[in-house]
Amino acid sequence: MLIDEVDIIVKGGHGGPGCVSFIGKHGGPDGGDGGKGGDVLVEATTDLYALNRFLAKSTLSADNGTAGKSNQRSGENGKDLTLIMPIGTFLIEESGAEIELNELNKKILLAKGGLGGRGNAFFKSSRNTTPKRAQPGLSGEEKKLSLKLKLIADFGLIGLPNAGKSSLLNEITNAEAKVGSYPFTTLEPNLGMLNGKILADIPGLIEGASEGRGLGHRFLKHIEKVNLLLHLISAESIDPLNDYQVIQKELKAYNLKLLEKEEIILLTKSDLVEAKDLEKKLKSLAKTKKKIIPVSIHNWESLQFLIKFLNQ
Ligand SMILES: Nc1nc2c(ncn2[C@@H]2O[C@H](COP(=O)(O)OP(=O)(O)O)[C@@H](O)[C@H]2O)c(=O)[nH]1
Ligand SMILES: [Mg+2]
């Protein structure tokens, strides 16, 4: 199951305590400082399921700094903890402050580790040559965060069940979405990367999706964040124009703005029909006035053409 909402607590590591130590029996203080606690950071991934693991473990702490040592040696800094969350995750603090994860390969600080305490060597002065005190180190920052996933993608694959959305995603990106010859193989959206752009497979749109039928209504909200819709229609369909209109109607019923989105049509599984039949279907779809590209996952040239188009 795709978890798209979960609450967590993040804690920076505690700073290590400073050390109280003296050189020999009557010598001066030589206790070192404690190490700094580790920070908690977050980094985005295209794995949409990355929030699932926070159900099992919802309190996440970076390592503590270790204690200072004699001979003015500092304690070690605690290791940072980097949390991995899906791109499109919103992190909402109790104060209402929000962070949106919208960039890959960038770490964002969530909770700072505490500073290490000073060792007694630090407190030596002309008035006090043998200080017996050291600081305990500070606690790390602690935050309660509500995580909410909103799918963001450059391209959204839409179309009736079985149109070939998951197959195409798998073929032209690194994704490994489930594929099957029956409707609703894909119960959850999947993401893939194509030359740095994100493609989303948005499953389950059917007639009535906007009213809550099928699975589509859960994902319609996600389409709002997509830049270009790729509307897949199977070349095997008896009436491709009708297939197109069924989905258009749902988009419209959900939100008129979705119809203003840029959209192209992919006539899929072109390998399964005769050239003449393909021509006929292209013609009937011409009424939509959209750009139409015939594709087949078994025809590398057609995929290359599509990839080139998407790269522009
Ligand atoms: N021959 C052929 N079969 C395809 C092609 N694309 C998808 N399929 C098949 O069509 C079925 C449905 O594909 P799937 O990707 O699961 O459709 P989705 O429901 O839109 O995600 C699967 O059996 C696929 O193997 C294609 O280009 N050519
Ligand atoms: Mg699918």
Automatic annotation (TrEMBL):
This is GTPase Obg. It comes from Candidatus Daviesbacteria bacterium RIFCSPHIGHO2_12_FULL_37_11. GO terms for molecular function: GTP binding; GTPase activity; magnesium ion binding. NCBIfam families: Obg_CgtA, PRK12299.1, small_GTP. Its cofactor is Mg(2+). It is an enzyme of class 3 (hydrolase). One of its GO terms (cellular component) is cytoplasm. Residues 1-152 form the Obg domain. It comes from the Bacteria. SUPFAM superfamilies: Obg GTP-binding protein N-terminal domain, P-loop containing nucleoside triphosphate hydrolases. GTP binds at residues 159-166, 184-188, 201-204, 268-271, 296-298. Monomer. Its EC number is 3.6.5.-. InterPro entries: G_OBG, GTP-bd, GTP-bd_Obg/CgtA, GTP1-OBG_CS, GTP1_OBG_dom, GTP1_OBG_dom_sf, OBG_GTPase, P-loop_NTPase. Mg(2+) binds at S166, T186.
